[in-house]
Amino acid sequence: MRTWFEPEEAEEFESAKDLLIRRCVTWAQEHGHPVDDLLLSAAVDARHESRDGRLAYWDGARIRFFLLRYIPYKVTASREELDLAPEVLRTYLRYLDVTGLRDPRGATLEEAEEIIAGAKAEYAAALDDPALRGLATFWAHTALGQGYDLTVPGAFERFKRDLDAGRVPYDAQVLDKIMQHRLVHGGIDEERAFPQPPVSLPPASELTEAAGRSRTVQRLITLADWLGKDGRALTDAGNLRVADALEVSALLGTGEDQLRVRSAADLPQLNLLLAWARKLRLTRTSKGRLLRVAKAAPLLRDPETLWGRAFEVLPELGRAVTVPVATWRPEPILAEIFDEILPDVLNSMYGLDEMPVVRLEETVWLACQEYFVLDEEERRLGLLRREVARDLGRMFDVLSDLGAVELTRGPADPLYASDLDHDDQPLPPDAVERLRTALAEPDLALVRLTPLGVRGVRARLLAEGRDAPLVGELATAPPAELLGVLAQHYPPEDAVAELQGWLARPGQDVETLVQAVRDCPFRTRVAALLRVLADALPERRLLRDLRHDPILGPAVWTQLIDAGEMKPGSLSERENLLMGAENLLSVLELAGPEGLVEQLRRMGGGDAYDFLEAVLASGHPDAVGLRELRELVAGPLRRTARHPLRLVPTRPPGARGRRKKRKH
């Protein structure tokens, strides 16, 4: 049972969604919790369609988005049914919790229930606001209100014909509000983002010290102190006087105090720091003077928070980071798209070692050509490309002063030239040739994120709703949830590090993890959790030690046989039957009841029926799965089989007493 799928894995996702909803509905009915298939389906779809796609990850932002945006925008149902959504979501989150499917990096169940309770009044208001509906939802509600049953084949086409013919009345004012709201706020669709690799960070104390050592942070503090209580006078053009500009440049150590300039505007490093300080609200302008903001005092006393805020606002400072030159363009290309290019470049560096700057120059230049129509002659295009490369270098210098990147020199890792001959290479031939030549040089400019930079990029990724694992963040996670995240989101080496960190804490041991696997109610997930646990433990004897486990045995045998560490012939007749049951139950989860019925039919004749009957009497520990086999698979087979499947009450093998002989 996976809880994350690529967007193109449509069939796999739908099978998993059907399984999740089917099991959740059954569980809810057994425990007396409110449940609704349509609303459960919407909850699963909302997370699958999100930027990170994690079905079992729910935090405050995702809960509120689902209730206050997704349902009003996308779900068409009666108001009575829609009113159930908060309680149905609560049921769903409870089910994720009790089955160990919950992503532990989201809200706890208690936190989630508080968030749902707090959003109920807003949810009712959101349902009452027709402007929050999507266009499809608006027309669906219109159809329902006019008596069209859209579940009936042909009803939608009839509604559309009547609408086009003017026979369907609708609220034009509401439609206008929907269009205006969409124009201002956009829709709710999100583009799936690439998964990020897990990263490691040093202790918090080291990051705090590094932030305090940041050259930019020290300069911002120094600049604010230099302004003092009375501030400094500005010229009519809004710049510092030249004498003051040179004085503070010397104090800041930018090296610009030795320049002979006619205006403070000719000092780019000072101008960047002044723009940065304004953006951070450390300074303000009033009555011809540049003043320090009194309310910024707590921020200036907290270098770590100041660093984080400075990193956060840097994408907004493109026109101060890039340096205009005397060309035919009014401003540098990179300045116009800096707010998009900087995050993209940092994302490209995230989780990697030193990258050749020249590789980033080519990808940034390609991005610039996609943003702008550059109908320039070849000579001018070359000048523009070099201008972009120069400003990219300036950007890295600024990030280096901030302490977000480290600049070094040396040979490039062969990795960065390994894809140049690929057929799907996005770079044009001239860029590939430039890179092939440049990457062969022994002394290249290299760049990498510092730990502070990694933390800053990760914070932004999380704020955007993306998955950005951090080694160590699962140290106190419940065992089943820990293994679930490792199985789906961690490469083997990072899974080992995370698991060892978890085991190092008191009261957390291997047996606790094994018991969590035993308690898992999904056979495909049992296999995945066993695999990640066995691979991560140093001696790799776990599977052999569990060879005779009464709960995990069938899953263990399957993995040992697949790995060639066990021969199928070594299994007893009963073990073969249990492993057969394991396989059928896994197919049931992956392909659904109809898919399994079809596979059994292809097996043909009475042998398949007899095998299924034996599986149902095998004593396999998955009682829920066996019940689904009996109700959803055996029933359809029995109704359509030429020779009806006989489902007689039996005792599991090994129980006392003898089975009665069947009459043929």
Verbal overview:
The chain has 664 residues and is mainly alpha-helical. The chain is built from 31 helices and 6 strands. Strand 2 and strand 3 (289-292) form a beta hairpin. The longest helix has 31 residues, at 573-603.
Would you kindly provide a brief summary of this structure?
The protein is mostly helical. It has 31 helices and six strands. It is globular.
Distinctive features:
664 residues; 6 strands; three-stranded antiparallel β-sheet; mainly alpha; globular
Number of helices: 31
Mean pLDDT: 89
**DSSP E strands, number:** 6
Identify the strand order in the major beta sheet: 1-3-2
Query: Which structural category do the helix and sheet elements fall into?
Result: mainly alpha
Which stretches are poorly predicted, pLDDT < 50 over at least 5 residues? Answer: 643-664
* Radius of gyration computed on alpha carbons: 32 Å
Strand content: under 5%
Distance between the termini: 39 Å
Largest sheet: 3 strands, antiparallel
Instruction: Please estimate the helix content.
Output: 55-70%
User: Which overall shape is indicated by the principal axes computed on the Cα atoms?
Assistant: globular
